[in-house]
Amino acid sequence: MRFVVVTGMSGGGKRTAMKMLEDAGYYCVDNLPIPLIDKFVELLATPNSEVTKVALGLDVRSDQNFADAEKILDNLVANGYEIEILFLDASDQVLIKRYKESRRMHPLASNGSVEEGIKKERKILKNIKKKSNYVFDTSNLLTRVLKEEMDKIFVNGEEYNSLMLRVLSFGFKYGIPVDADIVFDVRFLPNPFYIDDLKHHTGNEQCVRDYVMGFEEAHEFRDKLVDMVQFLIPNYVKEGKHQLVIAIGCTGGKHRSVTLANELYESIKDKGNYGVTISHRDVEIK
Q: How many whole angstroms separate alpha carbon 203 and alpha carbon 249?
């Protein structure tokens, strides 16, 4: 039997993940009372059980001691049960935004402060996050990409290194992205903005791409960047990092940065057991 525990920060995407597992043929149970967890696993693990894939949703609740759930899971592992833990996370800013949009109360926000509830929850979930087999940061993760990554693990049985890489283009005139881990400046390249036939196009179009990549410096930058990123990724994985945002900026975020971000994405997207997404923050700004 394959047994997956789905947990994480409230608002991190646990319900979405559970629905995906259900669609993939997993028998899903959410919010099972903590004292029943071990009995539930033992019952489904009997030799005659027809259930072969199970997903259990585990939340932090104000009326239950999450530490008890951790102890039960540890005991099950000690008794020979194989348990995989999927942890859904997101940045505090994104979680707060999601709560405001949904107008829901955080389960630990006794005084009404979502921020305080998130702080308490992170402390409670600190240990189980460290024990998790898979950690997804959904702050900037499209639902489609989350499904693709989950299918790799829970449907196709592919190896997963718990790192999601996001390539992001931006314009310096609109500010450096606050969630960027590494920032590169490509303003050293000639600017298509000053070419009348290219000014109103973007790096997503072939004419701009051809112009930018028509310079040897652009090719050399891309090659050196790809080489460095491929060096960094396994080292970040080794240190337990779950999300890496590489931001590439030019003046307005429409031409050079978009082109080089696309070049990086195309060069690394199929080169390792990690997820890669791309987005262009400022490309649509008029």
A: 12
